[in-house]
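ok so for the tutorial part 2 we go from a plain amino acid sequence to predicted structure tokens. step 1 is just haveing the sequence, like this:
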Amino acid sequence: MKNEKLSLIPGAWSDASIWELIVDELSNLGIESLSITLEGLDKEITKKHIDLETHIHNVTTYIEAQQNDQCYLVGHSYSGIVASLAAARFPDKIAGLIFVEAFLPENNKSLLEVAGLDVESEIKAIKQNNGLWPPPTMEELIHQPFLSESQKYYLINTMVGHPGKTITDKVQIDKDVLKNIPTYYIGGNLSERIKTNPNFGNITFNKLNGGHWPMLSKPKALASIINKLQLNS
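step 2 — the prediction. this is what the tokens look like for a chain of 233 residues:
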């Protein structure tokens, strides 16, 4: 297979450890990968004034450090937006974008808007939680049918409040800059909203019914799909 580096970006509320099972599964397939923790999501560090640009910078700093090497960016959930905007800064250094149950950027819209959430309600919750977006509760995770009980408890015990401004900042992106980057989407379905997103060219869809956290619920299947994507790229 190709030698491009695989960079795994966690979604909201999670640090790099959310990808541990995938890193191991990919390693078993001979694929080297690195998971990145975005600022403000390290349990040991409390940082303020973190916005969407901060998280984009976290990823672009990593991309720049690769010197002449290309890399694949793998974005989960919220980080579909982060990965896309980071790739837009250095399109020539991106071998491909791989989205896992992710939200994709739409011009002049925030993650909350793209996700179809009640923006007013979520902003109120952020203000009441000292500027952090509260993670899902166990009651909310009960409705995730693909997660085992132990996986639900894992999320409850590891998720932290997510910097609120990162999900309320509105996206600005050149609609043509990403169109020539190979783009893949892995998840339960490819919504019409994603299919018609004007910022991307052809999106190759790979179906995986594993709920919103397939890196926990179906790590072997997810790693296998990623492996095939790289082999065919």
